[in-house]
Amino acid sequence: MRFGCAIAAPRQEKYAQPAPKFPAVTRDIALQVDEQVTNDQVMAIFHEHGGAFLQDVTLFDVYAGDHIAAGQKSLAYTLTYRRDDQTLTEDEVTQAFDKVKAALQTGIGAAIR
């Protein structure tokens, strides 16, 4: 057996992130938009209007077909909210989520599904 190769292999440092102290709150949202609307446009609205507690946005579904008007598509996202100093209240999340919905409707003409 040759053990020299295993011993000579460089070590890779691993860095762990501390677990969050307070829980996250997620909300899903599905939008019906013009097929020309890009994910980048939607993400820009999320980041501009999502508020201080919006930590992550994930696109999890794109659909065009039955039950969607011609020239339209559906985009579905999960929004993750979290505070670092305390647990978010339902009102804080609802206010932030409502602002995002309004911005999507006025900014890109999205219909919330």
UniProtKB/TrEMBL annotation:
Its EC number is 6.1.1.20. Its main location: cytoplasm. It is an enzyme of class 6 (ligase). It catalyses: tRNA(Phe) + L-phenylalanine + ATP = L-phenylalanyl-tRNA(Phe) + AMP + diphosphate + H(+). One of its GO terms (cellular component) is cytoplasm. It is found in: Cytoplasm. The keyword Cell membrane does not apply. Pfam families: FDX-ACB. PROSITE patterns: FDX_ACB. Its cofactor is Mg(2+). SMART domains: FDX-ACB. InterPro entries: Fdx_antiC-bd (IPR005121), Fdx_antiC-bd_sf (IPR036690). Residues 20-113 form the FDX-ACB domain. Keywords: Aminoacyl-tRNA synthetase, ATP-binding, Cytoplasm, Ligase, Magnesium, Metal-binding, Nucleotide-binding, Protein biosynthesis, RNA-binding, tRNA-binding. One of its GO terms (biological process) is translation. GO terms for molecular function: ATP binding; metal ion binding; phenylalanine-tRNA ligase activity; tRNA binding. It comes from the Bacteria. Tetramer of two alpha and two beta subunits. Belongs to the phenylalanyl-tRNA synthetase beta subunit family. Type 1 subfamily. This is Phenylalanine--tRNA ligase beta subunit. It comes from Lacticaseibacillus paracasei subsp. paracasei Lpp126.
